[in-house]
Amino acid sequence: MCGIMGYIGTEKASPIISKGLKNLEYRGYDSVGVAMLSALSGSLEIRKGVGKVDDVQNQLKFDELDGNIGIGHTRWATHGTVSRENSHPHTDCAGKVAIIHNGIIENNIELKKMLLSKGHRFSGETDSEVIAHLIEDRMNSGDIGSVDSIGSVDSIGSVDSIGSVDSIGSVDSVGSVDSVGSVDSVGSVDSVGFVDSVGSVDSVGSVDSVGSVDSVGFVDSVGSVGSVESAESTRFGSCFEDACRWAFGQLQGSYAVLAMVEGADEIVAVRKDSPLVLGQADHGTFFASDVSPFLEWTKDVIYLQNHDFVVARKDSLRICNLIDGEVDRPVDTVEWSVEEARKGNFEHFMLKEIFEQAETIQKAIQQDREVVDRIVQMIQEGFGVFFVACGSSYHACMTGSYLMSKIAGVHVNVVLASEFENYEHFLTDRTLVFAVSQSGETADVLDAVKAAKRQGSKIVSITNVMGSSLSREGDELLMMNSGPEICVLSTKTYTSQVIMMVLLACALAGEDEDCARRVKELYMDVHNLTSKNMRERLRNLASLLVGKDHIYMIGRGLQYTTAMEAALKVKEVSYIHTEAFAGGELKHGPLALISEGTPLFVFVSRENEDRIISNAQEVKARGGYVIGVSDWDNPVFDYWIKVPDCGNLNPVIQAIPLQILAYELAVELGLDPDKPRNLAKCVTVL
Ligand code: AGP
Q1: 442 C-alpha to ligand 1 centroid (Å)
Q2: How much is the pTM?
Q3: Class of domain 549-668
Q4: Does the C-beta of 445 come closer than 6 Å to ligand 1?
Q5: Which residues are CB-neighbours of 666 under 8 A, at least 6 positions away?
Q6: What is the CATH number of domain 349-526?
Q7: Cα 71–chain centre separation
Q8: How far is the CA of 83 from the centre of ligand 1 (A)?
Q9: Which residues lie below 8 Å from residue 325, measured CB to CB, with a gap of 6+?
Q10: Least enclosed by CB within 10 Å: which of 46, 330, 593, 661?
């Protein structure tokens, strides 16, 4: 999904935006663009191009742009090809309004049709561009649409122009009116400051006094508006802000939008089902898809809720909710340090995050005892437990269901979040749904949570990002404590999720102490897996595999789910077709894929050694090249990766060498392990 960033304050915006986009690049790297409001000319400057942040930034020199107000976007294409025209920011016909968007506008086709019929010209094929033209369309209408009837109004600050008013019950005081198209009837008006022009007034009950009105300020208090039957917009605010509020009201789907306009020192934003957070610093306000882009400047963050509408100026910040009205959003403090979100001495985030696992695994087991006890009780008292997730998190859930069955004797249904709707009719208010997502923003998982809540089911959220949507959706929350994971591939968060599954299963079985001791013992085993020797051995294996078109992996039980995760890592980052099968399935079809030299990984544990080794022999018999992942060598292996056998903790210890192998394959193939093609760190659209 795309990364969006904005800044308004006293600092020069362009370097802040460029740096922020660099930190957001893991969310999408097809094209990049910025818009700045020049402090010198007051004009809107847009620069955008296809490619990664560094390349486009060097080519288009974003940092040259002056101004203290700016927005920036890094794109992951969903609607429209990867091109300059489809890059954000998008503008209106006049190039005066600029918007950036993350999400999908589901009704973009009908909105575009309406705008085209009104003469708007579109420069790209994206769904997002309609937003700029909607704002323009509203601003060009200029007038406050027509007002059917207003019950009674205590006081109105000032009005630019009112299209037409059917009837006004009574008005205590009106600051001043620029022009009123036509007024059918006014009950009584106590005082009107100054009226520029009134088109026509049918009847005015009584007007006490009239003041004067030129432009639209923001009216904090509209005493009581009896009823506003259909008024396109009866709110009085800055024309741009109004137009944005109206335009955002037309959108359906998921969206986080930042908008700017020439001539207004403000950024207007909205979020619905796409992540957007605010950073507050003494010198200004930051907007971003997550906290990492502005950690360098501030740790004070405001997590926006769905339908929150923000107007940020250099000296003020206003948040209201388009559904609930005025809201008060608290300022939280981010625990993560800037360093954690940096590569340090590592060439890539992927390697850094793999090397962090000896520590992160220990942090994953440090959970609030009371929360774990409550969750154990929910499982015991509930009727039906579901684990719901996507990608690597789904593989951790698969492993979790095996562990729940093996250790605690509890049955768990594991369902891909995107397939969860097929199970909704099984859900009741006694069902317990574990929603697992490192980013906490995966749209399919959030959608599954909505479906479960519709049936009254209880939710346990397991996530790595405090303040993420999922962290706020659950009845109970377990944080993974892995620290920021920047590489698109999940590595440390996968092993942390598995450790949390072990913790829950042991807690259910009342074997907590033994579990905690065994995880502690894992520290050195995990640390040793990142040794120079091991890396050398895996680098050597990578050089044997780089030319292969297909790689297969097998395992039984916990080793089968580990094979699934290992296959995902290799295919994600090397683009080599890699597939995992349950060892027992081999003879039911996949064995046909094996020919001379076909590489097959076999994950072995003491528990099911005989059977899985005989599967490996069946492959060997067809000329396959067998790579063993196990604690001891075996004649069937053509290549052996020595990994200690840790029983139920094997899904952690056996996954790590394959993460390193995937990394070495990518480097060997000259690919970027942190930003594989066509992928993004969190998928915020369905
Ligand atoms: C894994 O390496 C991928 N990044 C991807 O499959 C990921 O696990 C999936 O998108 C789920 O992400 P989440 O845990 O943030 O929900």
Answers
A1: 8
A2: 0.77
A3: alpha beta
A4: yes
A5: 350, 573, 574, 672, 673, 676
A6: 3.40.50.10490
A7: 18
A8: 26
A9: none
A10: 330
